[in-house]
Amino acid sequence: MSTPFSPGRNGTAPPAADRIAALFASLSSPARVTLVHHVASSPDGIRSSEPLPDGCTSTDLDALLQSGILAEHNGSLVVPGNARAHGSVLTDLLLGLAPIGIGSAAPRASSELAIRAVATEDWPSIIAIYEDGIATGNATFDTRSAGAEAFDGRWLPEHRWVAERDGTILGWAALSPTSVRPFFAGVLEVSIYISGEAAGQGVGALLLDHLVRHADAAGLWTLQSSIFPENMASLVLHRKAGFRTVGVRQAVARHHDHWRDTVIVERRSASVW
């Protein structure tokens, strides 16, 4: 398989415009876009033996493989890390793919859902949801929960929330400082986790919206998050909440004996400008 983009004259990399044009040339049909979305939305890719989506031919697949947007790994089609990281162009494209081909907006949570501040009795549910996230392998570098005391010390007390319905905690979101230096006091790290039973119900969107609005009201000027590129649900959630892709940190740390990339996203508050 060829590399994603050929070198320019004298062995130098081609200009950004050429790289972007090559990306869009490789995604020149709805069938190809649908295939990339299908692969990118699956945490471990899809088996190479699976039927291609309707309208997608072997020629389309070959074009995506030759461009480097897709790759074959251990019998599966995957979006390789270098393609996701390529100037963040493809990463941004993938973030916008979730609504394409689905035909409807994400479902909204029912009116019974309540967003409220974290209470002492919520810690067992919060930790259980976090441990479920750890088990997915694509939510955090942690391999075990540090417990309620660590969370309590890490999060800002006035910026930690749970989503609750009928007495059941369905998700939580919180902010933690990114630096002890006072001039970075308005730059916070977002953590948000949703229980498996609440997936696809719009709980995450409502919870993150609540967190963002309260952060804006408090005069916090930057919210940021570091997300595994395989965690498409989280990337799409943040994109819809107004976060933009800053870049991709390649092989930033090891996780279960493998180097992992992270996508850095941020939201700047308009209220402070």
Can you characterise this structure?
With 273 residues, this protein is of the alpha+beta class. The chain folds into two domains: 87 residues, Arc Repressor Mutant, subunit A (Orthogonal Bundle), CATH 1.10.10; 159 residues, Aminopeptidase (3-Layer(aba) Sandwich), CATH 3.40.630.30. The chain is 33% helix and 24% strand. The protein is built from nine helices and ten strands. It has a seven-stranded mixed sheet with strand order 4-5-6-7-8-10-9. It has a three-stranded antiparallel sheet with strand order 1-3-2. A hairpin with a 2-residue loop joins strand 2 and strand 3. The protein is globular. The N terminus is likely disordered.
Sum up the overall morphology in one term: globular
Percentage of residues in DSSP E strands:
15-25%
CATH-derived architecture of the largest domain: 3-Layer(aba) Sandwich
Number of helices: 9
Keywords for this entry:
2 domains, 273 residues, alpha+beta, globular, Arc Repressor Mutant, subunit A, disordered N terminus
